[in-house]
Amino acid sequence: MSALYVLEVVGQSGEDLSALYRQLQQETGYTSAYDRIDLPLASMEVRSRIFAQLQANPLTEIAGKSVVDCNGVDGYKFRLADGSWLLVRFSGTEPLLRLYCEAATLPQVHQTLEWAVGKFDLIKTV
Known about the structure:
TATA-Binding Protein
């Protein structure tokens, strides 16, 4: 139903969805940026090793920011003290690690994703 409401607003306004989103951000003062990286793994064994490492030693800090909490549904979604988040999600069918991040700015997103790539590349080789 919510998708139909969004379509109705887009149709009635004549604006594209991204323009409406920017307008909403200006009105509310809320801005965010998002990106994702797919990190190929050497094998499903490496995938299992990273998964075990996350279970045994949950992250308490990511890119210099404290982890506030972690939701383990469909991956590991780490909510950080500054309001940003990082989701670490494994492919179920191939040796692939998906890293998703949202933060206030795109440079912050990229900094967090680069940190995560470095962290999980290190685990791959241990």
